[in-house]
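User: For my dataset I need records formatted as: sequence, then C-alpha cells, nothing else. Please produce one.
Assistant:
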Amino acid sequence: MNDVAIWIDVRSTSCFKVAWAACRLGLDDRVRWRVIDLARQDQRTPAFRALNPLGQVPVLVDQDRPLPE
C-alpha cells in the first residue's frame, strides 16, 4: 500500500470501523490518516468535495484515486 490516505471523522462509527480494521490488520502504520470535523462542516469544502461529491466519510485515496465509502 503505497501513498494511501484515509479521510475520517473520529466521532463517526463508520470511520471507527475502518480505522479498527486497518489497525487489526496491521495496516495502520502504512496509512496517512486525515481527520476532518463533520461538526465544523469540513466535508463541505471544495477540496473534500473533489474527493467525494456527496461529502461523506470515510474516503480512501489510493495513488491519487479517491474511493469514497
